[in-house]
Amino acid sequence: MKFGSVTDPSSIDFSLPKTPSATLELLKEHQSDEPFEVYVGCAKWNKKELKGFYPRGTKDELAYYATKFNSIELNATFYNSPSKDQVETWKDKTGKDFKFFPKIPQSISHYGRLLNTDEKVKAFVDATVLFEDKLGMAFLQMHDNYKPKDFDRLDSFLKNFPAGYPLAVELRNESWFADKEVAERYYALLEKTDKTNVIVDTAGRRDLLHMRLTTPIAFVRYVGANAPSDYTRLDEWIARISEWRKAGLQKLYFFIHQNMEEESPLLADHFIKLINKTFGLNLKLPNGDKLF
């Protein structure tokens, strides 16, 4: 993942911004005694990207991946909207507790830019609902040149998106967050339509660490820099997630990326160990007791 990459990670201040009061207020409205639901995964299961992760002779990469992780950020659906048969095939290769987080196709987000996309949205939703209990949450990622001048287009898209289908939104253009009035209008739209605000932690775009939750769900896309700081950054995330959990956070969806993706499972293993220890969970460990 090259978005937000930098040549010298040591020059970046990786500290997390303070949690906005609006986030804490929203979480407190959703406090409950329900168990903490946590899903951690990578972006892909492709053997080429995750070189060294699969044992020699592995014939089905997704089936093996699902024995080591409880979720996948399904970037494959960004390039081609899946057929119903494809979704059924993926679903049948994974265990009952596994969840998919499919990315809205680029034909809707990047090429269509949210205009005249009803039929494409319907095809995507009709296929991916066949994941059934294994559907986590889809996410819409807009091109970084998508600006607030097209707010009304986003407003219409989200208000008309199929009711009951879980959706998160990631906006990348800096103008959405540089102007407080624009940002607050955007957050209000997400809250009104019950859409989850994606947080991106990447070296070159610290403005995407808005830390603003619009549902009691934290959807975090964490991008390492293939540097030692990748691990210490995760320590701070554990502290922040603990703060949010105490305030009322119900679910955490945390996806690990690296500029060189083959290191993603190692970083994810470190994070999952911290999660398990901090919250008394027993999530699968992708590395186990071996080094790869």
From TrEMBL:
It comes from Sphingobacterium corticibacter. It holds the Pfam family DUF72. Transmembrane segments: none annotated. PANTHER family: UNCHARACTERIZED PROTEIN YECE, UPF0759 PROTEIN YECE. This is DUF72 domain-containing protein. It comes from the Bacteria.
